Amino acid sequence: MKKHGLIVVDLQNEYLPTGKLPLSGIEDAAANAALAIADARSKGIPIFHIRHEFATADAPLFVPGSDGVQIQPAVAPVGDEPVIVKNHINSFRETDLRQQLDAKGVEEIVVVGAMSHMCIDAVVRAAVDMGYPATVLHDACATLGLSFNGVTVPAAHVHAAMMAAFEFGYSTVKSTQDYLSVA
């Protein structure tokens, strides 16, 4: 079995109902992510926390130093678990995530976090393109509804479309319980 690492993407206060960009199902996703994190900690699986913040204080959200950029307490890092700060959608872009994965000998990744259609999509596709097989825990991810060209797409449909796309050609998609039952 290949050594895997858990990537926890952007589970920050900004996405809570009290934040500037509340996501549908974020509290359930964070609770499931917390289960995956606890399992990883108990098994010595490396955990990599990703925290999004914009580079300037005039950003509309994810403002440096604000409460919104803080990682939610339920999934907060402990000990020497790294927190990789990113300024872009892709967690690999202009960060040392790849170097940290390689330094820990990670050969495949498990991904949880937010938003399914943006940062989760970007990190999964980039990781797979770099040679890291990926598993996404669908119920440990959250997103929001979107609109395009007069069509409104509910969050559940946005999320399902992303998970279906992953499963079609990019990654394994599992529930947290299915993952924990074999992990």
From TrEMBL:
<feature type="domain" description="Isochorismatase-like">
    <location>
        <begin position="6"/>
        <end position="145"/>
    </location>
</feature>
<keyword id="KW-0378">Hydrolase</keyword>
<dbReference type="InterPro" id="IPR000868">
    <property type="entry name" value="Isochorismatase-like_dom"/>
</dbReference>
<protein>
    <submittedName>
        <fullName>Cysteine hydrolase</fullName>
    </submittedName>
</protein>
<dbReference type="InterPro" id="IPR050272">
    <property type="entry name" value="Isochorismatase-like_hydrls"/>
</dbReference>
<dbReference type="InterPro" id="IPR036380">
    <property type="entry name" value="Isochorismatase-like_sf"/>
</dbReference>
<dbReference type="Pfam" id="PF00857">
    <property type="entry name" value="Isochorismatase"/>
</dbReference>
<dbReference type="GO" id="GO:0016787">
    <property type="term" value="F:hydrolase activity"/>
</dbReference>
